[in-house]
Amino acid sequence: MKIAVCGCAGIGKSTLVAALAERLAVTPLGEHYEALFSPPGTFNAEPVRLIPLFNQVMDDKHRLQDEATNFVVDRAGIDLLNLWMARGLARYGDATREFADRCQDYVKRYDLIVFPPWGVLPLVPHDGGDGRVRVQDPWIQLRNHAAILGLARLWGREEKILCLPDERADVKSWVDQVCTVLERQSN
Predict the structure, then answer these.
(1) Mean pLDDT computed over every residue of the chain
(2) Within 13 A of 171's CA, how many CA atoms are on the CB side?
């Protein structure tokens, strides 16, 4: 079982990953974006330095996913591709094509890509532990969420994409819904 939990910052992805990993007895895989943000200011580096860092993060995420038989991952390559494009790296066409191809390949490998709902949890400043505070502007996050979902829908099969409904911001009900979809898929 290979599950990705995707979407913008501040919507409960990490909490959902932990709860799903526990319920399904699978390996939880974290975001692992440290190379892009440590030391502080790295994300604002020149493209010649950023592109290899993005590829390092992708390599590390893919290595961890390839080593795990069953997992739930916090953010997938499509989340990372959204960050790549938000940073303005799309103007480097060949590097972007190669990076996007790798992301697309992994989208096809997931059994399920889960999107917690945008806008149901209050966005609070989040310190990544390295002195940076993640962007908590709801409109920037909406743009990011829509872009990541759009990439999933472009490259994935619709029956493998689960957008959790926003009527309940309750992690237990989200886990129950994911498990129901997984049960249907296995029948």
Answers:
(1) 90
(2) 15
Structural domain for 134, as ranges: 2-186
For residues 14 and 20, what is the distance between their CA atoms, to the nearest angstrom?
A: 10
Instruction: Return the CATH number at 126.
Output: 3.40.50.300
For the record, the structure tokens of 3 come out as: 């599950």
13-29 burial, b if ≥16 CB within 10 A, otherwise e? bbebbbbbbeebebebb
Whole-angstrom Cα distance, residue 133 to residue 127? 5
- Tens of pLDDT, residues 134-170: 657 888 889 999 999 999 999 999 999 999 987 767 8
Please say whether the beta carbons of 21 and 65 come within 8 A.
Answer: no
How far apart CA 163 and CA 117 sit, in angstroms, is: 7
Q: What are phi and psi of 163, to 5 degrees?
A: -95, 110
Strand (E) positions, the chain? Answer: 2-5, 27-29, 71-74, 112-115, 161-163
Q: How far apart are CA 156 and CA 106, in angstroms?
A: 9
Vertex 184: Cα angle to 30 and 17 (nearest 5):
15
Distance CA 150, CA 104 (A): 12
Q: How many domains does the chain have?
A: 1
